[in-house]
Design brief:
By secondary structure, the chain is of the alpha/beta class. It contains 8 helices and 17 strands. The protein has an 8-stranded mixed β-sheet with strand order 3-2-1-4-7-15-16-17, sandwiched between helices. It has a 4-stranded antiparallel β-sheet with strand order 9-12-8-13, with helices on one face. A 3-stranded antiparallel β-sheet has the order 5-6-14, with helices on one face. Helix 1 (about 5-20) crosses helix 2. The longest helix has 17 residues, at about 35-50. The protein is globular, with a radius of gyration of 18 Å. It starts with 6 loop residues before the first helix and ends in a 5-residue tail after the last helix. The structure holds ribose-5-phosphate. The site of ribose-5-phosphate (R5P) has 19 residues, from helix 2 and helix 5.
Length: about 260
């Protein structure tokens, strides 16, 4: 069964499996969204079944909530949990200061709320998402549908005033219609190539009327777990600047590998 996994899925899987080791009995855990986070939810379900951990999980999307219930996790809302011990999530890009671009799966709003409500955010990724400077991946911006074209024009004006060159913005589509997020909003993707001042951009984007949230996660992530296709994992911790390495075996499990990908 594991032979069917691509190297990239193996990398995502080992990062996810390693990150689940941070989960302890009694914790309230935020569950990210996306293909990497889906591996983590499956791994967590298995650990909870095998070790009898009592955890409560707060998902960041309807997709993750459905998967979490499928694998037997106790799903509660953020309002029930209030604060979380840990959130584990994927990312679209990660820089050396652990700033992130998120929202490729349109879940950035709930993801940012949940991660910010957590004592610790662990990001799981493969090496392809590590970058010197954020911005090659289009930056998602969640905007309310009312007047979105005006909001888009204001965003473009703001980018001009910041001298962000060569940018384009596009409304994310779902087939022929605009995509709606779980919160009923649209996504504008900002194609910027390179984000010089991440902190400044994150702040000014959220000042624009109509913008609900942006996909820049600044000073939120503490730990990054990078997985590799050969089973290696690297754990980087910003708090003590440590880097630890490990290697995980691929263990065949029908539960984990029956439904590949997100
Ligand atoms: O909105 C989606 C999230 O921010 C995802 O965590 C991000 O897009 C990474 O997804 P994946 O693990 O599928 O690459």
């Amino acid at each position: 069964m594991t032979g069917e996994l691509s190297p990239i899925d193996k990398a995502k899987f080992v990062a996810a499996k390693k990150a689940v080791e941070f989960v302890e009995d009694g914790m309230r855990v935020g569950l990210g969204t996306g293909s990497t986070a889906a591996w983590m939810v499956r791994c967590l379900g298995e650990v909870v079944r095998e070790e009898g951990l009592r955890i409560r999980a707060v998902p960041t999307s309807a997709r993750t909530a459905a998967l979490a219930r499928d694998v037997g996790l106790d799903v509660i809302s953020l309002d029930e949990a209030r604060w979380l011990d840990l959130t584990i999530d994927g990312a679209d890009e990660v820089d050396h200061e652990f700033n992130l671009i998120k929202g490729g799966g349109a879940a950035l709003l709930q993801e940012k709320i949940v991660a910010t409500a957590s004592d610790r955010m662990v990001v799981i990724t493969d090496a392809s998402k590590e970058v010197e400077t954020l911005g090659a991946f289009p930056l998602p911006l969640e905007v309310i549908p009312f007047g979105w074209q005006t909001t888009k024009a204001l965003v473009e004006e703001m980018l001009d005033s910041l001298d962000v060159m060569g940018r384009t913005t596009s409304l994310r589509m779902n087939g022929a219609a605009p995509l709606f997020t779980d919160e009923g909003n649209h996504i504008l993707d900002l194609h910027l190539n390179r984000i010089g001042n991440v902190r400044q951009l994150a702040m000014v984007l959220n000042q624009i009327p109509g913008v609900v949230e942006n996909g820049l996660f600044v000073d939120i992530c503490d730990t990054v777990v990078v997985g590799y296709g050969d089973g290696r994992v690297q754990l980087r911790d910003l708090n003590d600047n440590s880097i630890r390495e490990d290697r995980l075996e691929f263990v065949e499990s029908d539960n984990l590998f029956a439904d590949l990908g997100d």
